[in-house]
């Protein structure tokens, strides 16, 4: 689940960027000062962005938060259950260490108005976390078979 979720949130981030929605939630961590902007129709009506753009950015943030907890759970499981598999433990540990960096970069992406270096670094760290999740999960799956 963690691997699939990490892949989905990465794709959603790419989609958000591709449709020009990177600043459709102009503040961080909230979106227009609220956690659920769709409960306030005036926000959507007065935004220069479409509802689809706002939804993409908002969903990216929300799903990323859920996946962050899954990455934490995966790391805890690796430490508890797979201590005898150093690759699993180390990749899960590195993924959880990179997670706060990724969250900070996500916030900076918005608060620094999509500065290319920050956006690129955010994507790079996402790719690293995805790769570490693959490295964590594949040996784990193989051990089950």
Large-scale geometry: elongated
How much of the polypeptide forms β-strand, as a percent range? under 5%
List low-pLDDT spans: none
Query: Whole-Å distance between the termini?
Result: 18 Å
Query: What is the tally of beta strands?
Result: 0
Number of domains: 1
At a glance:
The chain is mostly helical and 145 residues long.
Q: What can you tell me about this protein's structure?
A:
By secondary structure, the chain is mainly alpha-helical. The chain has helices at residues 2-18, 41-46, 51-81, 86-111, 116-144. The radius of gyration is 17 Å and the shape is elongated. The two termini are 18 Å apart.
Characteristics:
0% strand, elongated
Summarize the topology.
Blueprint: H1 2-18, H2 41-46, H3 51-81, H4 86-111, H5 116-144
Helix pairs in contact: 1-3, 1-5, 3-4, 4-5
């Amino acid at each position: 689940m963690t691997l699939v979720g990490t892949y989905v949130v990465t794709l959603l981030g790419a989609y958000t960027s591709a449709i020009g929605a990177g600043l459709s939630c102009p503040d961080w961590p909230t979106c227009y000062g609220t956690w659920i902007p769709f409960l306030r129709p005036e926000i959507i009506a007065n935004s220069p962005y479409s509802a689809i753009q706002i939804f993409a950015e908002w969903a990216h943030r929300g799903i990323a938060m859920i996946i962050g907890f899954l990455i934490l759970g995966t790391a805890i499981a690796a430490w508890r259950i797979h201590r005898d598999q150093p690759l699993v433990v180390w990749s899960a540990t590195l993924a959880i260490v990179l997670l706060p960096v990724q969250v900070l970069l996500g916030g900076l992406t918005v608060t620094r108005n999509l500065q290319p270096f920050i956006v690129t670094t955010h994507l790079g760290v996402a790719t690293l976390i995805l790769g570490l999740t693959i490295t964590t999960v594949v040996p784990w799956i193989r051990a089950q078979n």
